[in-house]
Amino acid sequence: TVAEEKQFNSRLLKPREDFVKFMKELKLSYPLQIDKALPANLVCGLVDP
Fold this sequence. Notes:
53% helix; RibonucZ/Hydroxyglut_hydro; 0% strand; 3 helices
């Protein structure tokens, strides 16, 4: 849950700027399904296939 993440994820205990810096330094690739998943999440999954 979000509450558990806030409690146990040390990255979330730091200021927002530190979190953003840390995540950028990971140099993660663009998520493969984000272009489908994000719009679906914004409408509670109610999208045409």
